[in-house]
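[Automated response] Your request has been received and processed.

Submitted sequence:
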Amino acid sequence: MRKLAKQFKTVWICAFLFLGVPALSFAGGNACSTATAVIPDGRSLELDYVPPSSAVWYQFTATANHSYSVEVRDDLDPDNADFNVLFYAAPVSCSSPVTNTSYNDTHLTEPAAGPHATRFSFVATASGAYYVSAQNGSGTIGHYVTVTVAETTLYSNVYNAIASGPPFPGGSGFTMFYALSNTTSSNLSYTMTVYDSNGNQIAISGSTPTPLNAHSASFLNSSSGFLATNNYGTVILTHNGPPGAIQVEAGVIWVLDSTHTLLRDVPFAAIRQLR
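Generated structure:
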């Protein structure tokens, strides 16, 4: 009986520490200069406590011309409308941070994050540290939040549009094909960029992002105008949707000679979107 009572007491002490002392659950810094780092690969910082009338700050490192999705939501109360989430794009001076609204609000785009959650997507204009702050507007109630940042850039590990010649003399070379699908009911936009084997940009899908309407598809090949011939390297695709919003199927056709053609699938995926 005495042992049982001791165990019961231990359980109540643990419950008190978890529920009665939420301040011990801090993870987010309370200022820009002490912002907690979040890794932009889809992993989440969960159950971070935000006291009443307080703000928590987070920062992550982004690469110019890559796309990202940021999500902040209440872990325990999905109906909580107390949060005001602000975004700060690089370069940021923590002595006088300036908010930025150059992003696409995706919190209701499939998969919807909920009416009071914050989720947005953007293409980084500069490399460096980006910041997010979450202000708890309630003066009496503390909340627990989850913060997730995912890079949504899609990568292809093969690109080739050689018009003729090696490695198959007598053939007409390689032709690349790309099938892009918008998996959501929201209109989105994308940019495809081609780099040569030395990492130098050799082509782009346009000076401005290309629209891709809800549930629509786009088909491109090496004669579409921006996929240069007689080059090889890599292709990346950036977009302003949530993770998984745009899917790409890629393939290459090798015409070996007048009677032989080889088809091959080429990977094209957001490799740093989910761990």
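Summary generated for your ticket: The domain at 154-269 is CATH 2.60.290.11 (Hypothetical Protein Tm1070; Chain: A). Residues 8-13, 15-24 have pLDDT under 50 and may be disordered.
If you did not submit this request, please reply to this message.
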